[in-house]
Amino acid sequence: MQNHRSFHPYIADAYTAVHQWLATKPEVNGYQNISSYKQCDDNKEPFKSAAAQYSLYFPTHYFKVIHTLENIITPEKLLTWLDQNRNICLVDVGCGAGAASIAFVEIILRLKKQKKITHPVNIYCLGIDVNKWTLAIYNKLITQVQPKVVSSQINLEFHTLPKSIGEAVIPAIRCLSKKREQWQQPFLCHVLMIHSTVVDLLSSQHKREQQEYEDLKELGGIDSDLIVGNYAKYSEEYALAYKLLFEEVPIDRLSVITIGTDADRLPVQEMSDALAQGFK
What we know:
The protein is of the alpha/beta class.
């Protein structure tokens, strides 16, 4: 018989509490009856759209991240990371409601329950998303989880960055540098960057860049060489931004994982390839 995954009880309680909180918000009324978040107008009903995404997709994205952490990173690798150092940073790019951040916390909770980790663990999550409404849900979810994991000797801290991925780099450098100083470490021993559910975000940004570039060329016949920025270099520019992040913040071990679908994946793949090329 196939085993089906379920939320850790702490996570299940927090997940339910967020739904209860959303039920008190008149602006999202009826969000659980929506069969596709695209039925909402992001411009007219942005909070309702974010709530619908939470209702429709959070469990799916959550368990995709769980599967990835268990089968790609592997619990054994996490145990190796935490054997000599108790601090770990998670940079959650396109964090949405927090599926990746909370999935990571669940993995640590399960390792704690199995007594494979017996010492305290400090987890710092940096949630980056251009959508402030999803960040409101992210904030509510993590603040629900924080007190629940204290008994498991997990100190969970987080910050949110309501920025596009490119705009978030400089404040992210500040956040990670400050955390390194607070932990009194010469460098951050372990940083895990996860791009989860970010494919559509990157694709839409890529399309906007392309449209703006084409519009400028048509306005009075502006020569391409006179336009600063080129949507064709979109992925390289983001790769350089990430490269700056990792050069400015002393990091011992960095792991980058992209979790998504095949649909609209080209911008992410291009960025990953450019990033890899930049570090050679």
